[in-house]
Amino acid sequence: MAGWRTIGVIGGMGPAATADFLRLLVAGVPAARDSDHPRILIDSNPQVPDRNAALAGRGPSPGPVLAEMAQRLMAQGAQVLAMPCNAAHGWAGAVRAVADDAFIDIVDAALAAAMVHRPARVGVIAIGATLDLNLYGRGAVPVVAADPARVQPLIDRIKAGDTGAEVVGAMNQIAADLVVDGADVVIAACTEVPLVLSAGAVPVPFVDTTAALAAATLAAARLA
After folding, report:
1. Residue 55 region, left (φ>0) first, then alpha (ψ -120 to 50), else beta?
2. How far does CA 210 lie from the centroid of its chain?
3. Which of 4, 133, 157, 199 could join 206 via S-S bond, C-beta 3.0 to 4.6 A?
4. Contacts for 160-163: CB closer than 8 Å, 24+ residues apart
5. CA distance from start to end of the chain
6. Digitized pLDDT (tens) for each residue of the chain, 224 residues in all
């Protein structure tokens, strides 16, 4: 089994999505024993300023808090950093300023996973901040986005612990509508979305951004 660099997780946005990311990091290692896994340092900080509010000018920027979290993780020994929140990547520059090449970008990881399918049009399920920041607009193909007015209430319910049939059904319908609108790949561009939406419910290839980030993080952390 290969050795590992230490992974640092800038998390808490929200806590359930961070826990899902940790689950995928563990599942992504073909380990026979505990010692086959990488060391993972997690700063799950639900007090990071709200990304929607910051972008709308109704709250402070999350940038300084994210940079402080990155700096603290690196001081504790993290050599690879990941942030399982799409919207927070609007302030990724603050993290890169202290982490440089140690930072693995969730948007880059997700777009790379989507491009494997050679899509003509990518569907994105995201909150308003992610869309307003045009984080997925840097891809090589056009993007069709779900209406954030439909997505945000579901994300709020998931963050509050509601992953029941009503929320699942509504998220499935959003994905189906993106396909009707021409998407031939659907990206769950909010890390709460994969908590209720699975690949089996989407009639085209589905990109779980949390899973894409976990795979990219493990690839960067693995020592030759």
Report:
1. alpha
2. 4
3. 199
4. 161/16, 163/195, 163/196
5. 10
6. 569 999 999 999 999 999 999 999 999 999 999 999 999 999 999 999 999 999 999 999 999 999 999 999 999 999 999 999 999 999 999 999 999 899 999 999 999 999 999 999 999 999 999 999 999 998 889 999 999 999 999 999 999 999 999 999 999 999 999 999 999 999 999 999 999 999 999 999 999 999 999 999 999 999 97
The tokens of 8 are what? 């640092």
Would you state the structure tokens that stand for residue 106, as one six-digit string? 């969730």
